[in-house]
From TrEMBL:
Source organism phylogeny: Bacteria, Bacillati, Cyanobacteriota, Cyanophyceae, Nostocales
Keywords carried by this UniProt record: Amino-acid biosynthesis, Cytoplasm, Isomerase, Lysine biosynthesis
Record-linked PANTHER family: DIAMINOPIMELATE EPIMERASE (PTHR31689:SF0), DIAMINOPIMELATE EPIMERASE, CHLOROPLASTIC (PTHR31689)
Keyword Cell division assigned: no
Residues binding substrate, per UniProt: N13, N66, G76, N77, N164, N197, E215, R216, G225, T226
The protein's role, per its UniProt record: Catalyzes the stereoinversion of LL-2,6-diaminopimelate (L,L-DAP) to meso-diaminopimelate (meso-DAP), a precursor of L-lysine and an essential component of the bacterial peptidoglycan.
Xref: Pfam families: DAP_epimerase (PF01678)
Name of protein: Diaminopimelate epimerase
Catalytic activity: (2S,6S)-2,6-diaminopimelate = meso-2,6-diaminopimelate
Pathway: Amino-acid biosynthesis; L-lysine biosynthesis via DAP pathway; DL-2,6-diaminopimelate from LL-2,6-diaminopimelate: step 1/1
GO molecular function, one term: diaminopimelate epimerase activity
Gene: dapF
Length: 279
């Protein structure tokens, strides 16, 4: 049975999207996802995202496999792509511009804006050691400015969860970071029992951050939406930036706000369709 897919990307963080709203379409296995994400022997992507029927009153459910086959709790660029994918699938019968999506990180709501951008309520960041899968500091102390030994150097890291774990460190020059070699050492460090995404942030101004990322289960990507959100929160917690900032990723900019009113994080950015194909 041929399975249709559509390729989307959010600032170059690219995904294979599959319409699993009907139970007659099988959800592919993690092993199949690894093959499909391969950039030489498959379609090529950072992950596979499934549009499934909603749960507990949500419109839809999102599941995602990273390109290594692991299943993360959430994906920021990916849920913007899912919002556009759903609007494309609904076509003429589309009746809304905001979707309530059930995810392993809770209910996340992408909203399609008039200018073509997608604004997402990414929910509340988790800041306490008890909420972030790390052994960096016991108890409920916030995981801020903790020393972490990686590659023979002591880094000062701040950990934030957006449903998925992020380890953030601030550096003078992100371009100088040897991401290929130290990324995996952060990802697989024993203090992160569920591994971690790792973001390196250069503070250009209090409203402009430059970011590079080594993603859990995907490696170097051109953008990471949950990582940009977690990094802004880490910047505010450590006094390095304001609560609204542009986060510049290799793939382009995201606008991130950590609301003073409801403490939720809002992310605004693009999502582009590339092509549709058949497996
Ligand atoms: N690799 C991430 C999932 C994808 C997150 C990233 N692509 C984003 O845009 O948030 C993880 O394992 O938590």
């Amino acid at each position: 049975m041929a399975i249709e897919f559509t390729k989307y990307h959010g600032l170059g963080n690219d995904f294979i999207l599959i319409d699993n709203r009907s139970s007659s379409v099988p959800v592919i296995t993690p092993e199949q996802a690894i093959k499909l994400c391969d950039r030489h022997f498959g379609i090529g992507a950072d992950g596979v995202i499934f549009a499934l029927p909603g749960e507990n009153g949500t419109d839809y459910t999102m599941r995602i496999f990273n390109s290594d086959g692991s299943e993360p709790e959430m994906c920021g660029n990916g849920i913007r792509c899912l919002g556009v994918f759903l609007a494309d699938l609904e076509g003429e019968s589309r009746s809304k511009d905001l979707y309530r999506i059930h995810t392993l990180a809770g209910v996340i709501t992408p909203q399609l804006m008039a200018d073509g951008q997608v604004k997402v309520d990414m929910g509340l960041p988790k800041l306490l050691a008890a909420e972030i899968p790390t052994t960096l500091s016991a108890g409920d102390s916030k995981v801020i400015n903790q020393p972490l030994e990686v590659a023979g150097k002591t880094w000062e890291v701040t950990c934030v969860s957006m449903g998925n774990p992020h380890c953030i460190t601030f550096v003078d020059d992100v371009a100088a970071i040897p991401l290929e070699s130290i990324g995996p050492q952060f990802e697989h460090h024993p203090v992160f029992p569920q591994r971690t995404n790792t973001e390196f942030i250069q503070v250009v101004s209090r409203n402009y951050l430059k970011m590079r990322v080594w993603e859990r289960g995907a490696g170097i990507t051109l953008a990471c939406g949950t990582g940009a959100c977690a990094s802004l929160v880490a910047g505010v917690l450590t006094g390095k930036c304001d609560r609204t900032a542009t986060v510049e990723l290799p793939g382009g900019p995201l606008e991130i706000e950590w609301s003073e009113i409801d403490q939720r994080v809002y992310m605004t950015g693009p999502a582009e369709r590339v092509f549709t194909g058949k497996l």
